[in-house]
# Entry
Amino acid sequence: MLNARRAIWFAMMLLSCIGMSARAEINEVRLAQQTSMGYMQFSIMDRFKLIEKYAKAAGLGDLKVFWDTFNGPNNMNDALLAGRVDFVSGGVPGLITLWEKTAGTPQEVRGVSAMSSQPFFMNTRDPNIKSIRDLTAKDKIALPAVKVSVQAVTLQMAAAKEFGEANFSKLDEMTVSVSPPDATAALLSGAGEINNVFSVPPFQYQQLEKAGVRTMLNSFDVMGGPHTFTVIWTSKKFRDANPKLYGAVYSALQEATDILNKDRRAAAQIWADSTKSKLTGDWLYDKILSNPQVQYTLVPQNTVKYSDFMYKVGSTKKKPASWKELFFPEIHNANGS
# Structure
């Protein structure tokens, strides 16, 4: 009888341990994005519940997925370190900044993958501004976040090329942090101090619809060709504690990218619906997604140009040996840079 009781007790403990193991990973995940078309995969992932699909296939049961929106990388990175979100997305400098800050610590952060490669424009309504050389102290440049956004760092790179590396921050005093929708409204109003906007799609294309607004700086020209615009990142702590969930998010990203590229017009409408944009899917496709320069790909492209520059001018004190040091291993087989 004693042995039988022990056998029953052992079986109950074993079942309990199995149940605890199955519940070891979290049952909800929160992803953060910013306001642009650089995150179109997220709209598709949400529409088709792709993370939930892959999580269930991995044995994680019914997963709850939450989507948050931020303006600029600082607040997102703070939220990631505080555990309020699990994945964040933005421009490459935001990833580099947090990677350097956390490298070698329990909170070490790396990229999951890229999301898109596409140009962003600095548009102006001032007919006298032909290039950044024509900017004066009275001019204001709106961008998502001063000094740390991908637009801010790209502007510094443009200034370093134009005025010399020692003057890389020459234009910083002209920049102001404004969300892309609000910056667009300010530029198009014709009033106020904001007469230049270093923006994001689709807002940069909306701005160009107004007579008198034109592009005076293109990020592809600054970077010497195509470059990654948006990336997604998380912490090593989260990835280690939730390997199945991490895999589910990565697989969902892959499928969403495939869906997007197979029918960009339909994907444009999904994004418009998801963001409650007044723009139609046809307009978004015709003006933006039909452009071959606009690529939705998980492969990082020219990310090291950003890290090299930020290290050279002292914005960071450490730089990755290669692009792979910035990203987790799942993407390492890609032909990245």
Confidence is low (pLDDT under 50) at residues 6-22. Residues 50 and 142 are 35 Å apart (CA to CA).
